[in-house]
Amino acid sequence: VRADQRSHWIINKKIEKHFLDKKNPRKVPWTMVYRKIHKKGLTEDTKRKRTRKTQKVTRAIVGASVEMITKRRTKRKRTRKTQKVTRAIVGASVEMITKRRTKRKRTR
Q1: In terms of Cα–Cα distance, which of 55, 29, 51, 54 is closest to 40?
Q2: I want to staple 25 with a disulfide (CB 3.0 to 4.6 A). Which of 3, 33, 68, 82 is the partner?
Q3: Whole-model pTM above 0.70?
């Protein structure tokens, strides 16, 4: 039993000697840990379990139905880009107008 309360099973003198010499069991070829790491003596070739791919499902959000979401998703990139540009232009013009108004109010 060690200071950290871990107990070790020492079967014979060979194992005890390696344990007391603080040999790394990953590097000692006859240990189970070594055999597992280096894939030795595997009689059964176990197949990995297939994980199912998660399916994306569109759900309605408050204020937007499923049909509306799918329509917007299928819109062409070009139309979305033009809409974005026009919104930016309109937003910029609104900002310019508000700046002019604030300048006028300050000067008066």
Answers
A1: 29
A2: 33
A3: no
